[in-house]
Amino acid sequence: MKDVTELSDGWGLCHGDEVLPARVPGCVHADLLGAGLIPDPFIGANEHEVAWVGDRAWTYTARLTTESAHERTDLVFDGLDTAAEITLDGEVLGRTRNMHRSYRFDVTGRGGELQVLFTPAREEAEAVRKAVGDRPNVYPEPSQYIRKMACSFGWDWGPTVVTAGMWRPVRLEHWSTARIAQVRPAVTVVGTRGRVEVRLVLERTAAGAGRPLTARASVAGVDTGITVEGTEATLVLDVPEPELWWPRGQGGQPLHDLTVTLTDGDSPLDAWRRRIGFRTVEVDRTADEHGTGFTLVVNGVRLFTRGVNWIPDDVLPSRITPERYRHRLSQAADANIDLVRVWGGGIYEDEAFYDACDELGLMVWQDFLFACSAYPEEQPLRGEVEAEARENVVRLMPHPSLVVWNGNNENLWGFRDWGWEPELAGDSWGEGYYLGLLPRVVAELDPTRPYTAGSPWSGSWDHHPNDPAHGTHHSWEVWNRRDFAGYRDSVPRFVAEFGWQAPPALATLRRALPGEDLAPGSPGMLHHQKAEDGNGKLNRGVARHFALPEGDFDRWHYLTQVVQARAIAAGIEHWRSHWPRCAGTIVWQLNDCWPVSSWSAVDGDGRLKPLHHELRRLYADRLLTLQPAAEGVVLGLVNQSATPWRAEVTVRRTTADGAVSARVPLTVEVAARDAVRTPLPVDALGVAGEGEFLVADVDGLRAVHFPVPDREFPYPPPRFDVRVEPVAGAADTVDVVVTAQTLVRDLLLQPDRLAPDATADTGLVTLLPGEETRIRVGGWSEPGTAAARAAVFCVEPT
Ligand code: BMA
Question: Does residue 70 have a pLDDT over 90?
C-alpha cells in the first residue's frame, strides 16, 4: 500500500546567517512573526514596516531521507507560493511559478539537503511583463503576470503583504506498481436514479506497466470493479433513489462516501475517498421580455440566490485552519445565506472550505482566478493557466456544494468600459481564457456543471458586459456616487456584486490601532481604509440621512454601520421582491482578510457588523418590506418557502409618540416560492405626513417606512429602559431587555463594548413606544446595567 510521510517538521528558513524554525504549511511572514523578527502587519501601519519581506528571496531547507521498500518515492508539494526552485543536494529538481498548482518530483532513492528557494513574486512578475508586454490593471501592481493570489499585492480592502513559502502541505509518497493519479466523479440524477461516473487515471512504475490491476468504486451501498491494464478506466455506479443534496433551507444535505481502491491481486496499492452528493444544477439563461435571465436551478427548483462574496479570510492564507473556515462559513449560514462566491482575486480554497459548504448546504460559485486586470495569454502564463484550471476543476468537482464555475471577475467589463480596449491595441488580454480555454476545460473534465464566462457578463458581446437586463450585473455606481435609494432604480437579472462600507467593531479597531485617539480620519483609521475615497463615500452616505457627527467617533461609527445595513436592505428588499425577474443577490462581501473598514458583514477579527444580523432578516424565507416606488409606497412580500403564505398584514400610519392615524388590515396570498408587490391602499391608509411614518406587521415580521431622511424627521429624544436578566444555566450569558417609552429607531447593542469577545444575537431593531426587545448576550462575565446602557445606540434627533 502507498505510504505517506508528511514533511511538516524539520524545516528551517534561512535569514542572514541564521536558520529560523519554519512551519510547513506556512509562509515567510508567519515564520518571521513567530521568531519575533517583524511586527504584526495587521497592527497600526506595520504593513509598511514589513514591506521588505516581499522583496527578498527566501530559502527553506530540510534534510530529506527517502529510504523505503517501495519502487518509487515522490516529493509532493500541494502549494508553493510562488516562484520557486527546488534543489536536492544542489541538483535542481524543478522550478515552479504557480501558487495554484501542486508539484510532484520523483526522488526515489535520493536524500540529502532539500532547498526551496523563492524568488520575490514581483521580480518574477516583472520578468514576465517584460517578455509579454504591459497591460492594464486596476491596481499599480503586476498581479496579472504571475499565477499568485492577486490580493497579495493589496486591494481596496486589503494590505499589500507579498507572501512566499510552502503554503500547503508537503509530503513524501512511497508507492509500488501503480498509484491513483486522478479521480473524476461526474454525478448526475435522472428521474429518481443517481449515477456516478468515475473516471480514473493511474500512474504506473516501469515494473508495473501493463500489469492487470483491480480498480473498485463504491458509494451508497453500490459497488463495482474493473480490471485495468493501462492507465485509464471508467467505473459507473448506479444508485437507485438517492436522497438528494439541497441548498440550505430547501432540504437536507445527505453526503455519501465515494471510495476508489486499487489492488494488485490481494495487495492494496492505493485508495481515494471523497464525499459526494446527488443533485442536479443548471443556470437558466432563457431570453424573455426583460432580457436574458440568470437563474440557478437546483434539483429542478428555481432559486433566488441569497449570496455573499468571499475573499481570502487571511492575507496569509496558510494560517486559515479548517476550524476557522467552518466558523466563518457557519456565520454565513447563520445569516440565512445560501451561496458563497469565491472571488477571482483570491485562491481556490482548501478542501476544508468546500467540505464545510457541503455540510452546511452553502452553494459555492467558484471564480477562476482572474480579477480586475488584462491577463496575457502568451507563455509562460497560458500553460500555467491551463494546468491550474485542470487541476482545480478535478480537485473540486466531487463537492455537491459547487454549483457554478465562473471565468473571471470584472475583466470582460473592464475591457469594454475601463479604457483597456484602445490601450491593449490588439494584445491578448484574457478573452481567450474566459471564452475559450476555461469553458473547454470545464466541458471536458466537469461536464455536469454550469460555466459562466465572467462576473459580470451578459452572455455575449451583443450586450454590454454589465448590462443589468442580461445575465449577471455588478452594481457599484450607487456606493460610489449615490444614495442607496438608487438601488431601487433598476431590476437587474442577477446582482453578483453590490456593497456598502462600514468600519469594523470597536474592539477590532482598538486591537488593530492600539493607543490611537480614534477619529474617522485618524492615521490608523485611514491606513485601515484602502478604498479610493473610502471615507468620503462613507461620510457622504451618512450625510444624506443624518447630520454628520463632528468629533463624536462613537456616533460616527454607529451611523456608518446603520447606513451600511440600510443600504444593503434597500437593495435586497427591492430585488428580492422582483423575483423571478431578479434571481439573486451576492453581497460584496462576507469577510475580511485583516482589520479594515470595508464592505464586509463580518470584520477582520470575526466580529459581526450589524449588517450580518440584517442579512439574517433579509435572506429569511419570508420577508416583508415597505418600499418607496413610482406608484407610491409598495408592500413587498417574499415567500421562498415551499408552502404558500396567507399573509394577514396590518399596516399603520403612526407618529413617534404612538398615535395611530390609520390602521389597515390587508390579506395577501403569496404562493410558495413567489413574491408579491402591492401598492398600499392610499384611500384607506392615507399618506404619511409631517411626523408620521408607516409600520407593517405580519407573523412577527415588521417593516417600517419613513417618508423623509432621518435628519428631517422630528424624532423625540429617545427614552428607553435597560435591564439585565440572567439566563438560567448559562454562565456568561444574559438577556439585555430594552423597553422603549418613545419611538426608538435602529437600536443597536454593540457587544464588544461589554467585553471584547461578547456576542449579541440581535442587530438593529426599531421599537414603537411600549415595545421591548430581548437581546441575548454571550461571553460577558461581569454583566451590569450601566455598562449595557452605555453599549446601546439609537437614532437621535438632530
Ligand atoms: C469589485 C470586486 C473587488 C472590489 C470590490 C469593491 O470590483 O470585484 O475587486 O474589492 O468591487 O470595490
Answer: yes
- Residue 523: name the closest of 505, 509, 507, 537 by CA: 509
Residue nearest to ligand 1 atom 4, measured at CA: 156
Strand residue runs (E) in 390-432: 402-406
> Which residues are CB-neighbours of 755 under 8 A, at least 6 positions away?
779, 780, 781, 782
Question: Hey, whose CA ends up nearest to atom 9 of ligand 1?
Answer: 372
DSSP one-letter code for 590: S
Tell which one of 157, 497, 599 to mutate to probe ligand 1, the residue whose CB is within 8 A of the most ligand atoms.
Answer: 497
Contacts of 188 (CB under 8 A, 6+ apart): 194, 195, 197, 280, 448
Tens digits of per-residue pLDDT, 628-655?
999 899 999 999 999 999 999 999 999 9
Q: State which ligand 1 atom lies nearest to the alpha carbon of 474.
A: 1
Q: Rg (Cα) of the chain, in Å, rounded?
A: 28
Grid cell, residue 48, equals 509598511
Q: Whose CA is nearest to atom 8 of ligand 1?
A: 409
Atom of ligand 1 nearest to the CA of 455: 8
- Which atom of ligand 1 is found nearest the CA of 157? 10
Burial class of residue 621, CB neighbours in 10 A (0-12, 13-18, 19+): middle
Integer Cα distance of 424 and 136 in angstroms: 8
The mean pLDDT of the chain is 97
Q: Locate cell 430581548: which residue?
A: 774
Catalytic residue numbers, as ranges? 410
pLDDT in tens, 529-579: 999 999 999 999 999 999 999 999 999 999 999 999 999 999 999 999 999
Count the Cβ atoms, other than its own, within 10 Å of residue 412: 25
What number does the ligand 1 atom closest to the CA of 531 have? 12
What's the CA-to-centroid distance between 162 and ligand 1, angstroms? 19
**Type of residue at 539:** N
> For 681, phi and psi rounded to 5 degrees?
-75, 100
**pLDDT tens digits, 241-273:** 999 999 999 999 999 999 999 999 999 999 999
3-state secondary structure of 413: helix
pTM for the whole structure: 0.98
Contact 14, 180 (CB under 8 A): no
Asked if residues 757 and 741 have their Cβ atoms less than 8 Å apart, the reply is no
Mean pLDDT, residues 465-477: 98
Exposure string over 352-371, b if 16+ CB within 10 A, otherwise e: bbbbbbbbbbbbbbbbbbbb
Question: Cis omega (within 30 of 0) on the bond before 580?
Answer: yes
Cell readout for 252 is 437536507
Judging by beta carbons within 10 Å of its beta carbon (0-12, 13-18, 19+), is residue 68 exposed, middle or buried?
A: middle
pLDDT in tens, 109-142: 999 999 999 999 999 999 999 999 999 999 999 9
What residue owns the CA closest to ligand 1's atom 12? Answer: 156
Grid cell listed for 638: 417574499
| Lining residues, ligand 1, CB within 6 Å | 155-157, 345, 371-372, 409-410, 497, 588
pLDDT above 90 for 798: no
Dist. CA 84–CA 116, nearest whole Å: 6
